[in-house]
Design goal:
Chains A, B: It comes from Planococcus koreensis. 2 copies of one chain form a homodimer. Chain A is of the alpha+beta class. Chain A has helices at 13-21, 26-29, 38-49, 101-115, 130-138, and strands at residues 4-7, 53-59, 65-76, 82-92, 118-126, 142-151. Chain A is built from 5 helices and 6 strands, in the order E-H-H-H-E-E-E-H-E-H-E.
Chain lengths: 157, 157
């Protein structure tokens, strides 16, 4: 499928949240409702204001958004001082899965990482998604690391 | 051991690189030499200029830097629009290991993440470091994800 990639604009946020929520894990943690919770727009504005964050949408020939991902560029002292790219929040529309859209998205992120001079590109994938692990391995990623997370509650302070 | 935490300044970079290089994996990929490769200072300046990145040093009672870590704060649309903190490049001086300095560093990062309103704190740890996995589990992290990496070469474009 021929796709166009572009940076997301505020008018895209509702459609992006619709895709984030239409997912095994996303349906538990997202809230796709009208009106959309203001926290989504606030997060979009923070991403949009940060030159080291890009929220990228994939658009089909009819203008419909059918994929999304966020790429963060981070400078590090490690590896002799270098930039790395981190991919997060990858989703494709559930009605068009299996058509290589995810692969096109990730290859676009790899291209952006190279353009930005990154030495490394990385992501974490939930161990509850074995298909995603194989998908990323097929694109050239290696699961060399454990991805460790901790939820924070303000009341734990 | 009583430690003080503060943001790193440019004069700290050489000492930080000394610690990064004094490590099983770091000795292969870092270059601690005089003069220090300019790429380290360039990376420091990029970190220092970015309000969403903090390079934090742990200082002992004599003023000596004995620990370092980088914390990156990133806004995301996922999880109903939220910020998350990522810890990277954690090192403690090899002569003072086993004295709880690493634990103090990570707890400081958790505190900063809460102050910045993060809903999640995360890191990846190399599967070649089983002790590190247990260390982070002891601090409350869970290895729910695979941490996938891909090295990039400009010539692959």
């Amino acid at each position: 499928m021929a796709l166009t990639f572009r940076g997301a604009v505020e008018q895209d946020v509702e459609r992006i949240v619709e895709m984030l929520a239409d997912d095994l894990l996303g349906k538990e943690r997202e809230r796709y409702a009208q009106p959309l919770p203001a926290s989504y727009l606030e997060a979009f504005q923070a991403i949009d204001a940060d030159p080291n964050n890009e929220l990228i949408v994939a658009v089909d020939g009819t203008g419909r958004i059918i994929g999304v991902q966020q790429v963060t560029f981070t400078p590090h002292l490690t590896h002799q001082g270098s930039w790395r790219a981190t991919i997060e929040g990858v989703r494709t529309d559930s009605t068009v899965r299996g058509q290589g859209i995810g692969g096109q998205l990730i290859r676009y992120a790899i291209g952006r990482a190279k353009e930005r001079g990154c030495r490394l590109i990385q992501l974490t994938t939930d161990k509850q998604r074995p298909d995603a692990l194989r998908f990323y391995e097929g694109l050239g990623f290696t699961a060399t690391h454990e991805g460790m997370k901790m939820k924070l509650e303000a009341t734990e302070l």
